[in-house]
Amino acid sequence: MELLPRSPAEFGSARYWDRFFRQRGQRPFEWYGAFTELCPVLRKYVRPRDKVLVVGCGNSELSEQMYDVGLCEDIVNIDISEAAIRQMRERSTGARPRMSYLVMDMLHMDFPDGHFQVVLDKGTLDALLTDEEEATLAKVEQMFAEISRVLQVGGRYLCVSLAQAHVLRKAVEYFSREGWVVRVHQVASSGDKEQFVLPVFVYVMTKFRKIPGSAAQILEICPEEQDKPMRMESAERLVAAVKDRQHYALLCSQISKTPCREQVSLDLCDKESGKPRYTLHVVDSPSVKPSRDNHFAIFIIPQGRETEWLFGSEEGRRQLAASAGFGRLVTAALHREQRYEGMAGIQAELSGKVMELAPPGLPARQQVPFLSVGGDIGVRAVRHCDSSPLSGEFVVEDVKGDGTCYFRRLIFLQNRNVVQSEARLLAPTPLPGQKKRRKDKKKPSPTEPPGAIDKSYLCCEHHKAMVAGLCLLGGPDALPGELAVLVVGLGGGSLPLFVHDYFSQARVAVVELDPSMLDVATRWFGFSQGDRMQVHVCDGLDYVAKLAAEAPAQYDAIMFDVDSKDLTVGMSCPPPAFVEKPFLQKVKTILKPEGVFVLNLVCRDAQLKESVLATLRDVFPLLY
């Protein structure tokens, strides 16, 4: 403990470092980053003929190791501590004739301008930039200015750092402002998580001549698993990308030591686009007794089935993990914007990364199984992508369900795990006179779903309940000759289509706020208007209010199937304004006597739900 500084300011004091190295003795002191980990990055930017300056060398073995493996020999090491320089000279005398050690302050260096091709800093910037006080920032600016002065154009400043946000931001802002190219490498870990949890980074700043008036910045990051850099649009985005990797390292360290009390969720992003490619959930099952073969497994959720309760809810995943019989199960959901090369390709892509999420006590070289439903990754074909000012981005996609059935779905991407509308697709039937396919002929591709909509089938359970609500009008004989139905909320049109087709006397009016939904329903879900089906593109609140004032007692049945865009409210269907008492009284006004109001209520806030039900009871005499 005596080696620790009394204050951060002592990190810049020669007296402190002299005392530090005298007390520590000859043992090399490495802040972080073993040479074996740093070497692959150093080899990219240090050439054997380069003249290299190491600032704040301390008694680290880094420059000695670079010399001994032939990476570079013309190395000048400087430090403000005479004790450290004395130790280093003693260690290298005679063994490394081209390497030199000098007592020198990096804020005031004696070297001529453009003297070096590389300046190497391992932990020195981190030690200097301990806070953001004015005096500290002034020293850092002086350090950067001196490094810039002694580097040739085209030279590289390599800074090994833990990349605290304020340190990285300062380096990026300074050198990008000077017109330098800034690239951040994450150093591949040796795997010893017990020794050091936080990942190590190397900032590579390449000096270019500053072009007057140019505001262009080249900022890049190279994750440890790839060589190709990813371009970042701003310093803040680069800092955020580094922070994501730091959080991931801390998470992996934590769950490798202790079981997860709560499910952990994270996205793995595509290397090219940066968009999410896999969504992983880590689920631990304390009830499973560990044995050699049931510690850990990966479950690939088939495409298009991530919205199902078993895979898309916390409780469902908990049941899945328990039934699978593994102590830790990682579920992987596949994203619709991405392409996948089958189960083998996914396994090859994920096997290294998911091992970082392994549970404590996993035996060495343990084979980790990849599981799925039916052994495949499912089928998803995106048919249409678009956006509207009201609904945001949305997609229409065909997916293979459990078995041989295909379904067409409408998904609003702001709530991508919720199916907005769904319809079953009909299996293709041969045309009259068309011969059946012989058994030895090539079968149709399993990835090509059929196209026609099965209008006789209601996919959504709540639609079945809403149609069943029409029974409250009486039996078939009791139904009026003409049934007037109002449906607020079109979606894919399955509900009004079913009422239209199976109640031959029904005249259906549909109110839809978003005109793009009418286009989607017509183009992709088999919806059409006619004598008994009319769509009004307007606000349902206004439509009902106008009818209540001008034409009361008009409908036998009114159905609300309206989603809420406000995700902060604990009620996703309908929007709160649709269940306020004054509006519900208007709904009652436009119902005929003995009429039925059917409401799809999706509310996960127990108090809010009870409040809505109480309001409904106040307005309507009977509530089912």
From TrEMBL:
GO terms for cellular component: cytoplasm. Residues 434-444 have a biased composition (Basic residues). Pfam families: Methyltransf_11, Spermine_synth. GO terms for molecular function: methyltransferase activity. Keywords: Methyltransferase, Multifunctional enzyme, Transferase. InterPro entries: Lys/N-term_MeTrsfase_sf, Methyltransf_11, SAM-dependent_MTases_sf. Residues 53-158 form the Methyltransferase type domain. Residues 424-450 are annotated as: Disordered. Transmembrane segments: none annotated. GO terms for biological process: methylation. Belongs to the methyltransferase superfamily. This is eEF1A lysine and N-terminal methyltransferase. The lineage of its organism: Eukaryota, Metazoa, Chordata, Craniata, Vertebrata. The gene is Mettl13.
